[in-house]
Amino acid sequence: MEKIGLVSLGCAKNRVDAEMMLYKLKENGYEIVADEADGDAVIVNTCGFIESAKTESIDEILELAKLKKEGRIKAIIVTGCLAERYQKEIFKELYEVDAVIGIGANNDIVSVVQKALNGEKTECFPQKTLMPLDGGRLQTTPQAFAYLKVADGCDNCCSYCAIPLIRGRFRSRKMESIIEEAKNLAENGVKELLVIAQDTTRYGEDIYGKLMLPELLRELCKIEKIHWIRLLYCYPDRITDELIGLIASEEKILNYIDIPLQHCNKDILHAMNRQGGREILTALLNKIRTKIPGVVLRTTFIAGFPGETEENFVELSEFVNDIRFERTGCFTYSQEEDTKAAVMENQIPEDEKSRRQEILVNQAQTIMDEFNRSLLGKTLTVLTEGYDRLAKVYFGRSYADAPEVDGKVFFTTDNKKPIPGDFVEVKINDVIDGDPIGEMI
Fold first, then answer.
1. Which of 179, 192, 271, 319 is surrounded by the most beta carbons within 10 Å?
2. Entry pTM
C-alpha cells in the first residue's frame, strides 16, 4: 500500500480542503501517514495570501525536495492557493515538483497522485468553481474540535487582498449539506464546531437571497453532541441585530466573535474598499458588548497600508486602546501583485511598517494580559486538550480561546484525570507568561 503525507499551510479553510483530499485518497486505498517524511508521495497544500505565507510554502517544498533527492520520498504534489495563483512559475522554478494543480482539480487528487508516483508530470488548472465544497473529510484536528466551512471564495474585493483572484466569487454551501456534515463530525466525537468562510456572515446571500447565518446556527445548535459553536471571520457590516441576539441567547454559541477590522480610519478603510470608520465601528462593538455581556472580541489589523499617515496610525492606536480587544493580531501590509493596493501611491517603507506593527502588537499584548488577569478568581469551562509532561499540568481552551490563534488555559488536578475532549471546570488562580493557570474543581 502506497503511503501519502500531507502538509497543509495557511488558514483553517485550506485545512478543510486538505482533509477532503485525504479522504478521497484513503477511500481509494492509500495509507495516510502523519509524518510526511514517511510518505511515498507528499502533498503540499500551499497558502499564497501574503508574502510571508508564500515564502513558507516555497521553503516547505524545498525541504521536501531534499528528502526526494535522498530517495526518502518519490513525489511532490503542490496544491492550494500558491499553485492556483502561480500556475506556470512553480514547475519553472521548482523542478523537483512532480505535479501542480489548481483548486478546481482537488477532486482529481487520486489520479494526480498516481501519475506522480508513476513518474508522470502533471499540471491541471480547471475552473475554480469545480473545487468541491461538499464531501467526506479525514479529520486532522484533535478529535474534540473541527472547522466547518460554510462557503468559499469572496465578493468583498478588499484592495489589498488576492483571495478573490485565487478563490473566485463567494459560493455558499447548501444548508442541508452543512448540517449533515456537522452531524457526522459530532458522531465522530467533535464537540466544538468552528464556523468559517472568507466572510462567514455573508453565508447564504448568494443562493438564498438573504443572509442565512442565524438560521444555519439555529440548526447547528440542535445537534445534541455539539457543545460549542465558535464564529470566525465575521465581516462587521453584516453583523446584524439578529445575529447578535442569537449569540446572546443561545448557550451553545460561544460569546466569542472574530471580526477582522483591518483599520478604523474611514479614509484608509475606503482605500481598502471597506466601509465604515471609527465612529461606526465603535458603535457596533459597544452594541455587541452591551448585548452580549462578557463577550470576547478578536480582531486583526494591517499596519502600514499605502497612504497611512502617522495621524492615521495614531488614530488606530487610540482605537485599540479605547476598545480594548480581548484578542488582537496585527500584520504589516503585504504588497501583493494584481491587487489595487499594490499600485497605490505612498507605499510605506518596510522598516516603518514594522515599527508600527511592533507598537500595535505590544499595545495589544498589554491589553490581552489585562484581560487574562481579570479572570483571576473566576471559574472557566475548559475543553481539555492534553497534558504537558514537562510542566506536569493539563491544558485546554476556554470560550475565550480559538485553537491555533489564541492561548491556552493550564491547570492541575488532584481528582479524576481528564482526557482530551473532556469539559472541566477550572478556577483561575494565576497568570504566567500571559496564560491563565488554575486548578480543576
1. 192
2. 0.94
